[in-house]
Amino acid sequence: HFPHLTLKPSSVMGEEKKSKKEDKTEKKSKKEEDKEKEDKSDKARKEEEKKSKKEKEEDKKSRKDEEKKSKKERSRSRSRGRRRRDDEEEEEYQKRRDEERRKKEEAVQKREEQRQKEEEEQERQKMAEDAKRMDRTVMVVGLSTRADERDVFEFFSGRAGVVKDVQIIRDARTGKSKGVCFVEFSTAEGMVKSLSMTGQNIKGARVQVQQSQVAEGRGTHASRGKF
Prior knowledge:
- 63% of the residues lie in helices and 13% in strands.
- It has 227 residues and is of the alpha+beta class.
């Protein structure tokens, strides 16, 4: 016999078992509920993370698109700027070319004008010199075909004045004298004196001395002592 042990009635024991079973069931249900809540929380967290990740990716992509667009716009802007600079440089280059061409044309025109002025001045001087020569030149006709420039030079030198030039007119083919010559004196006074020598003989031929215009291109070596 165990006097300190008290036996419980079977009905009490049944209630306790039932209570324990309910406690276990409640605990199990609570665990399952907690697990379900935890799973839902994990799922919500994962979905939130996924959503956040997606938003970040979209945001990143959006920034890249914006950067790409901005870069493209800057590139276009630079291209437009380069084109403007190229156009401005081309315009400036064309202006310089036009200015250089204009200056060259002006320089050519000035040279041409200067050349024309020089030619006109030379012509005026020639005409003036021809006029002076006309005042100093006589024509001698009836000249002997045997007479040369030296004979004419010596005939007039000293007696009329200083002889500057003598030109005997000769046949272009044979070179034979045609009996006519031109005598240019250094001064008009010499020309006037020579007119009084008409009728005198040069190499046996009586000559006529008369004032004459200067023949263009005449030249002789008589006054230089070359005969």
